[in-house]
Each structure stands twice: as C-alpha cells, then as structure tokens.
Amino acid sequence: MSYQKIKGTLDFYQQEATKMRLIETKAKEILKTFGFEESITPIIEMTDVFIRSSGENSDIVNKEMYTFLDRGNRSITLRPEGTASIVRSFLENKLYINSPVTKLYYCGPMFRYERPQKGRYRQFMQFGIEVFGEESPFLDADVIISAYTLLSALGIKGIKLKINTIGDFASRVNYTAKLQSYFADKIDDFCEDCKQRLTKNPLRILDCKVDSEKDVVKRAPKIKDSLSDASLAHFIEVTTILSMMKIPYEVEDTLVRGLDYYTDTVFEFILDTNDDLQGLAICGGGRYADLVKNFGGPDISGIGYAFGLERIMMVMTNQNLFTDIDKKTDVFIISLDKESKRLGLEFANQLREEELVVEMDYKNYTLKQQFKLTEKLNPKFIIIIGEEERENNIFTIKDTQNNTQEKVKKENIVSYIKSKKQ
Ligand code: ATP
Ligand code: MG
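# magnesium ion complex -> structure
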C-alpha cells in the first residue's frame, strides 16, 4: 500500500525546505530591527475564536474552515489565519499590561478548505505580524514599510502595493447604507453570495470573485465620499508617508479585503511583473480598530499583515533569487577499517565543533567506493585514515580545490583545515 499526501498539501524537502526557512530567517531579521518579538500560539483553537474575529459571513468561516469535534465534544478549528489566535493570546496573557505597544510576529501553517490550484493550498505557511496599542497613521505607514523592506530584502522585483481605506465605524455605517440603496434594484443579476452580502456586508460585493468586474459594481458609490473627517485625515497621512518613502502604491477603491474585522487602512502587495505570476497576491493586511474590543478586551486598536510563504517562494524561484543553497560538505573522512572508522568519528566530531560540515562512510566500502562517494558530495577536504596512518599518527589530507595533498599530525588536523578553509 502506498500513501499520498492529502490534496492541497505540499511536502517540502531538502532545497525546497531550505528556501522556505531562508525566507523565514530573513523576515525575522528584518522585523527584529522594527522592534518585533515572536509569538507562537497553538494551531488549534476553539472554533468561536475564528467566528468571532473573521465574521460569520466571511468566506473563511462559511466555507473554508477545518472544524471538528474533539473527543470531549468541543468544536475545534485548525487555524485558517493568524490574527484571531494572536488576539486571543494577547488578551488571555494580558500583554497590554506590560507595555503600551506590543509588536508581534508569527510563522506557521494555516488551513483552509479551498479549491487547490497553483499558489493556493489547503495547508500553507503564513508569516505575519500584529501590532497592538497604537492608532497613529505613522504606525500604519511603518507597518507597510516593514513589509516592503522585507520583500525588497528578499530581492523580489515588481512588487506593488494596493491600498485603500474602508473608514472607521461611522464611515462604514454611512457607506453601507449608500451601497444597500444603490444595489437594491440591481442585486437580482448577482451571485447567491452577493445576494446574502447585500444585507449582511455589502462592502464584500465590491471584491466578489464572481461579480466584481461588472460595470454596475465599478459605478457603485465610493468609500472616499463617505469617510468621516478623521478617517480621511488618517488615510491622507498614511499615503503621504508612503509617497515620501518612495513606496510604489496605487489607491484601489474597491479593495475591501476578505475578513470582516478591518477598519480604515487595508492593503495588499501584489506582483506586477507582466509574466505568468502577474497579479499574484503575496501579502494582505490592514487595521482593525474594534477586534480586540469585540473579543471582550479593552479598547485597543491593532494592525497586521500576513505573507504566504509558498507564494513568495514561487516568485523568488521565478526570479532566480535562490542562489547558493546547495548542501555543502567541508570534509569527507575516508576510513579503511573498523578501528579507523572509530577514529574517523572522533575527528568528524572535533571538526563539527568548529562548525565544519563533516561526513564519512559508515559501511565497509573500499577506498575506491569511498572516493566515488566524494564525487557526489564534493567536499573541500578529504582525510584518509588507514592502519598505517593510525600507527604513525600522521594523516593524509587532500585539498580538492587546490588539488594538493599533505601529511598532517593528528593534533594539527583541526587547525590545518581551519586555516586552509579561509
Ligand atoms: P486570496 O485573495 O489569494 O484568497 P486572501 O485574502 O484569502 O488571499 P489573506 O487571508 O490575506 O489572503 O492571507 C495573506 C496571504 O496568505 C495571501 O496574500 C497569500 O499570499 C497567502 N494565502 C492565502 N490563502 C492561501 C492559500 N490557500 N494557499 C496559499 N497561500 C495563501
Ligand atoms: Mg482567500
């Protein structure tokens, strides 16, 4: 019987795993300079955590969650996104007591029951951030700058920021009413989801995957005409800073994002490269002024974003940005009998303490077979241990890059290789 991975999931091994970790490491490095610390939360949460945050009418809650009853009959969900868990953890551990502003990043697998296709999986990796405790538009700008810096540090070309404001609560009430009266006599031609949205969340009609290209949608009232003074001023400040920082952005007034919790600034980074990845969404985020309060916590505003790591990997592979990720062996130890293998293991572990990558033959291969192994691994040095070498305490070290070989005393092997490796 042979097993296959579940539809919509991926295996990452060797170079592919190296690529993913490389992105993760770079992201952590950059975010550290912005003052972020890590948060690690469980992959499973009570289902209510996600219903409360994403909104009962969001696609995620309606169609995409992996929900099950555990043996104690509790409804449990595999997290479909990071924000809800981080908010839950932020509140449960009262992080707001320690400092007025909390900056967290997270990285891990998310689960959504979606139709699998290129760049869309049922288990995928997200790297994201959340900041709590600051409402200033300067923070919105700085958060967006951190995402842009990160993508630039990875070398990705052709990234474009799409940004919009969906206003504060007052602006939304105003805008929702306008949309409802605008769409009331037009909704018959729309998809079933949009018919539901008209009463529950008409903003989502604007980015419906089925209907958003319709002319009537494009002519719908714009949020910018319904904004409160505070929301308008907030958005102007954010975009002024982005212009000053020369971050290429486009205001897209139909961008509303898929989760119900957003307020004011919402954004997405997409790829604008005119190739087969054109338009690919790699990062999405926004501000959520009321989410913490809706969770039963204090009135603390938050803002965050998340990247899809598989999509970033796809883009970076496409743009040839992964170089020098092959496995490298510094030293291979050839040993010709049992006693030599024991000594070989001792050498290997002395060298590894110096952070050298050392491999050896564990079988009883002949000298010729062991040399064959080195062809694949391509080590910089080969040490040969046989009976004669052991007796004289002098070992042959082959420098494969310079094609030279020397005899070196046991106690000098580590320093010899270290000095020649530079
Ligand atoms: P999309 O419009 O592509 O469905 P989304 O709005 O659902 O994206 P978010 O919830 O904002 O996405 O997640 C942030 C990022 O996570 C996306 O920009 C994308 O890179 C990645 N992502 C989302 N869903 C998936 C998925 N099913 N498979 C792989 N990556 C995903
Ligand atoms: Mg989605």
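# post-check
The pocket of adenosine-5'-triphosphate (ligand 1) is lined by residues 81, 112, 114, 119-121, 124, 126, 258, 281-284, 306-308, 310-311 (CB under 6 Å).
The chain has two domains: 15-168+228-318, 331-421.
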